[in-house]
Specification:
It contains seven helices and twelve strands. The chain is α/β, with parallel strands linked by helices.
């Protein structure tokens, strides 16, 4: 006969009473060691480029608009959409993009984004909430002015990240989140990569095939 409910519960109570005792010959498990990169910006750039992303380090915010306009030309983007996230306008993006042949659209709060329209965008520009230096990961915060589809559907994604928003690792970012109201975020490490059972790697199937991160210093 199978084990009765009473016997099963008795075994559970007995196991809980014993606590987390090590098995004979079992080695104690050490907690993971958190790395603190001596140069978070350099570590972030190296890690992201190792998985196919491109990092453009700039000394100041005044250089951002010109560099993004260069990327739009380089990618031959005809239709560009940028998030309306507060602070992005401080980088002079709109004026710089006006010098390119691209048509610019801005996602604004209160104006629901048309997903079908965003699917036709060639290049998306967003702000990054934070970056994780040990893995080259971006933290994106979708919201009313930053539709989630914006950085997923476009084949090219340009994210603007300030060096001051870099965290050494995910645990440090999570600790900072604990001190304020929680909102959903997206973690992105490099361009979209998909492999089938034959291990043939394809980019851009479930997200952008190209990821540019403009990393802005405090100069």
């Amino acid at each position: 006969m199978g084990e009765t409910r009473a016997e099963f519960l008795a075994r559970v109570r007995d196991a809980l009473a014993r606590g987390a005792q090590s098995l004979p010959g079992e080695r104690p498990v050490s907690p993971p060691v958190m790395r603190f990169p001596p140069d978070p910006a350099a570590s972030f750039a190296a890690e992201l480029e190792a998985v196919g992303g491109r990092v453009h380090r700039l000394e100041s915010a005044a250089e951002v608009g010109v560099r993004v306009a260069e990327l739009v030309r380089e990618e031959a983007a005809g239709r560009v959409a940028r998030a309306g996230t507060p602070g992005l306008e401080d980088f002079g993006l709109d004026a710089a993009l006006a010098t390119t042949p691209a048509r610019l659209e801005i996602c604004r709060p209160g104006a629901p984004a048309d997903v079908r329209s965003l699917a036709d965008v060639d290049l998306a520009i967003t702000a990054a909430e934070a970056g994780l230096a040990d893995t080259g990961t971006l933290v994106l915060r979708p919201g009313p002015a930053h539709p989630r589809a914006l950085s997923v559907l476009a084949p090219v994604h340009v994210a603007i990240l300030r060096e001051e928003d870099l965290h050494p690792h995910l645990a440090a970012f999570a600790a900072s989140e604990a001190r304020r109201p929680r909102h959903p975020c997206i973690l992105v490490t490099g361009p979209s990569r998909t492999a089938d059972i034959e291990m043939i790697l394809t980019r851009g199937v479930h997200g952008p095939r190209t990821l540019h991160v403009v990393l802005v210093g405090s100069g």
